[in-house]
Amino acid sequence: MSYIESLKVFVRVVELGSITSGGRDLRLTPAVASKRIKELEKHLGVRLFNRTTRSLSPTEVGHVFYDEAKSVLGALETAEAKVANYSAQPRGTIQITAPLGAGRRLIAPLVPRFVDAFPETRVRMRLSDRKVDILADGLDIAFFIGTPGDSNMKLRKIADCARVLCAAPRYLAQRGMPARPDDLMDHNCLLLRYPRSPEYFWTLDTAQGPRKLEVAGKYDADDGDVLTDWALDGRGIVNKPRFDVAAHLARGDLVEVLPDTPPVPTIFGCLYPHKKLQDPKVRLFVDFVVKQCEGLLPAG
C-alpha cells in the first residue's frame, strides 16, 4: 500500500501547491511527505516537480502523471466503496466540512456518536465559513447553510433554517431600533465576507415579497462566530441562523430586530459527489445527521 500512499501524497502536493500543505492534509510531517515524493520519483525515474527555494510546481511529466494518478485513485476509491457494500460494518475515513456555527453546534456533537455506532470509521472534520471546492479539497461531504448555487454535486436537504436579525441592547439604545427595512441603511451591519462571498446584501421577507438590501457597516469577517461576538459587544446588527443565536436571544444578550420582516429563510443541507452514494459510510453518515437534526431547526 506504500505506493498508493505515495500517489495520494503526490496528488495532494500538486493540488495544494506545497509539500508541507500536502503532507499536513494527509496528517504527515513535511519530512515524511518529501520522502514519499522522492521515493516516487526514484521509482518512476523522472522528476515530478520543479523546485526552487520559494516555489514548487509540477514538471511537464508531473502534470501527465497527476492526471493518471488521480484517475487511479478515483477508480480505487470507487472499487473500495462497492466492496464495502458487502461488509457488515462500514469502514474508512469520512472527510467532511461545515460552516463554523453549524459545524460546532450541530455536526461536531454528532461525530463521536456516529463513530461509536460504527467503530471502524474515522471522521476528519474541517470548519470554515468560506466556500469550499469539494473535489479539489478531497472532501466526501460539505454541509452548508444557504443556497449552494449551481453544482454538479448531489444535494441533500436536511432542514429549513430560519434566520434572524439581532443586536445587543446597548447598540439599540445608542442607535435606535429599526422600524422598517430601509432603516438598516443607517445602521452598522455586520457582514460575512470573504473572496467571492455572495453575502454583500441581505434579503428580507416582506409583505410585498423578498426585499434585497445592500447594507453596509464598519466591520466584516470571514468567521460567523466573530460577527456574533461583535454583535454581543454592541458593534452592530447581525444576520444569523436562528439556532446559532437562540441562547443569546433567550438570555436577552441579543434582541431580535425587525421581527415582522425577518431575513428570508434558507436551508441547512449537504453536498457530495454522486459517486459517494456508492459508499455506505458516506450514505450512513448523511442519514445519521438528517435524523439527528430533525426538529432542531425551526423554520420560523
Structure notes:
This protein has 300 residues and is α/β, with parallel strands linked by helices. It folds into three domains: 1-85, Orthogonal Bundle (Arc Repressor Mutant, subunit A), CATH 1.10.10; 88-161 and 267-294, 3-Layer(aba) Sandwich (D-Maltodextrin-Binding Protein, domain 2); 163-264, D-Maltodextrin-Binding Protein, domain 2 (3-Layer(aba) Sandwich). Helix content is 39%, strand content 23%. The chain contains ten helices and 14 strands. It has helices at residues 2-16, 19-25, 30-44, 60-84, 100-107, 110-117, 169-175, 224-232, 242-251, 280-292, and strands spanning 49-51, 56-58, 92-98, 121-127, 141-146, 154-161, 163-167, 189-192, 202-206, 209-213, 220-221, 237-241, 255-257, 266-272. The strands form four sheets. It has a five-stranded mixed sheet. Strands 11-8-12-7-13 form a five-stranded mixed sheet. A two-stranded antiparallel ribbon has the order 1-2. α1 (2-16) crosses α2 (19-25), α1 packs across α3 (30-44) and α2 crosses α3 (30-44). It is elongated.
